[in-house]
Amino acid sequence: EQYHVKGKSGGLEAAWPYLNHEDRFVRYAARVAMENQPVSSWQEKVLNEKDPITQIQGMVSLARMGNKNLKNQMLDKLTQLDYDGLSDIQQVDLLRAIELTLSRMGMPSNTNRQSAVDYLSPHYPANKEVLNSSLSKILVYLDDPNVIETTLTLLEKEDKSGPIEQASAVTDGNDLILRNPQYGLDIAQMLNEIPPAQQTYYATVLSKQRSGWTPELRERYFKWFYDAFDFKGGNSYIGFIDKARQEALTHVPKNEFDHYNQMSGDSLLTNNGIDLANVPQPEGPRKNWELENAIAVLDSGGLVNRSFESGKNMYAATRCITCHSMRGEGGIIGPDLTQLGTRFTAEDMITALVEPNETISDQYASTVLYLKNGQSVVGRLTNQDEEKYYLSQNPFAPDVIREVPKADVTETKLSAVSLMPPGLINPMNENELRDLIAYLMAGGNPEHPMYTEGEIKRAEAE
């Protein structure tokens, strides 16, 4: 690493022997040292190198630092290496060198392009997903028509990518859900229906494939998108998937666009509420509502002649429907709100919205288990016996239970944090806040006297 500065004398001589070192960190350090030397001093050494590992590392450097005119010569050298004689990790490095050469230097000549396809295609699919990831991407870039069938077959398989990592992600994610209500529900939804990562990768790679499509292959491919919109992958997931879908549709004949657009789930983006951008948003202006100010809004304007549609929109904008059911629609995480107006006053509702941690029902409270190792686990305590506590951590997957041995627990207590996040009404202006409270008082019923007979007294709804 002392040679990681431009032009330090002796850097090439010191680095070169370590380009094939068994430790990848040493290989990396040697490669960076070489890249800090003039390219002219090592370019020919790389192109003429016989050791495959040294050549692969050198080609990575040449792809990063060399002249684009070298791309055909570099690909010719790389595709003469004995692929089957390399280990899995060495094959990964080789594919990385080829990918870097293509991405930084551009498409090779037709002859070299076909040679690269002929060299790589027999090795696809591989027995390792990391190899398949690189092979699929490179072969699509080279526009190999045979890549479609192989990649679709992988796409249609049960996704088994990273089972250990995924299980770890679920466990770690579940631990976060009830700790942070601001983001916890997004995590909960995602963990309940995690997108198949490797399948998603193949689908996005194929979106750039231009030639080789048949009607049968296109049907198999575009039907995958329809199902993919049901998965939850964070707030950017739908947009990410749709971007790949739109890219793939650019390669469809114009007279078939409508057919494949519909097949791939275009209607789902608007009809089923998947398109979050179409959820009505408050006009504002935004305000950090405090309890006293929010209650004063009701006192000054009351709930007379409120807009049902606006109230319904604000109910959706606050994402109340994610956790609460009303008139048979919505989530089951929190209590049903259909009869809310018969049991609570408008002031009660305002208080719950502004200060959700003020009163937490035992029925919906989370339990914190403090462990001997200094960590803690949070969840809804569903049961316990002499040996274990049983916690439900994901509101969207309540049947998934985490077992915690009592021998590992030093203390238990109810969480002081409500699952409902604060600040839900902050984007709203005064009229929008009134419309939301009226909608809650009416239980989502447009025929409620709230709308047909004017204001119902807030002191106690009959």
Keywords:
two-stranded antiparallel ribbon; 23 helices; 7% strand; elongated; single chain; 462 residues; five-stranded antiparallel beta sheet; alpha+beta; 7 strands
Describe the protein.
The protein has 462 residues and is an alpha+beta fold. It is 49% helix and 7% strand. It contains 23 helices and seven strands. Strands 6-5-4-3-7 form a five-stranded antiparallel beta sheet. Strand 5 and strand 6 form a beta hairpin. Helix 2 crosses helix 4. The longest helix has 18 residues. The C terminus is likely disordered.
Quick structural summary:
The protein is α+β, with helices and mostly antiparallel strands.
Q: Approximately what portion of the residues adopt beta-strand conformation?
A: 5-15%
* Biggest sheet, spatial arrangement of strands: 6-5-4-3-7
Low-confidence region ranges: 160-165, 271-277, 455-462
In one word, what is the shape?
Answer: elongated
In whole angstroms, the N-to-C terminal distance is: 78 Å
Write the layout of secondary structure elements.
Blueprint: H1 11-15, H2 24-35, H3 43-48, H4 52-65, H5 71-78, H6 88-105, H7 110-120, H8 129-141, H9 147-156, H10 163-177, H11 181-192, H12 197-206, H13 215-228, H14 237-249, H15 257-263, H16 268-271, H17 291-301, H18 308-317, H19 320-323, E1 325-326, E2 329-330, H20 340-343, H21 346-354, E3 367-371, E4 376-384, E5 388-392, E6 401-405, E7 409-414, H22 430-441, H23 449-452
Antiparallel strand pairs: 1-2, 3-4, 3-7, 4-5, 5-6
Helix pairs in contact: 2-4, 4-6, 5-6, 6-8, 8-12, 9-12, 9-13, 10-11, 12-14, 17-21, 18-22
